[in-house]
Amino acid sequence: MPVRLVEQYRRWLEYEQASHAKVVAALRAVPEEKRATEAFRQAVDLVVHLVGARRLWLERLGGAPAAPDLFPSGLALEEAVRRLAEIEAAWTGYLGKLDDAEAERTFEYQSLEGDWYRNTIADILTQVFGHSWYHRGQIAWLLRSMGCEPAQTDFVFWARERIAGPGA
């Protein structure tokens, strides 16, 4: 039986929330003496960037009010974590009300550069999740560059189910 479009996005959100929790744990595990490094600052800024991008798309989709500081830099890790929790709750609410017909709807929006575009909501949802996957990879690389252990956030590790092997 095929997975409904919106159910797939809800599943991706669950995966994303679990992955972000692992990323936050990895960032919290960075020793204090390494938190002053540029790599750590960039990693936290990437978390804040993810929050801002998700907020911008949710605003465009009508699911969140405008935020005055979409992409601030230099926030403390715990402030980034607070903002992440807020936007994850907002996305949970948005996807909880979304149905397949609405996901297939075309909408128009203005880019930050001022140009106008048209996409389906499904296109945007795919972008939002792909954008998070991309930046989590960057965060992992930054953590590794500091000699720290990055979070394991590959989708297959989250989704797979252990079974008894053949002949077991």
> Uncertain spans, ≥5 residues at pLDDT below 50?
none
Largest sheet: 2 strands, antiparallel
Could you tell me how far the N terminus lies from the C terminus, measured between alpha carbons in angstroms?
A: 28 Å
Q: Which overall shape is indicated by the principal axes computed on the Cα atoms?
A: flat
Tally of helical runs? 6
Task: Estimate the strand proportion.
Answer: 5-15%
The helix-and-strand class reads mainly alpha
> How confident is the prediction overall: mean pLDDT?
93
Strand order across the largest sheet: 1-2
Describe this structure in words.
By secondary structure, the chain is mainly α. The chain has six helices and two strands. It has helices at 5-28, 38-60, 77-97, 100-103, 121-145, 155-159; strands at 106-110, 116-120. Strand 1 and strand 2 form a beta hairpin. The longest helix has 25 residues, at 121-145. The model has no long low-confidence stretch (mean pLDDT 93).
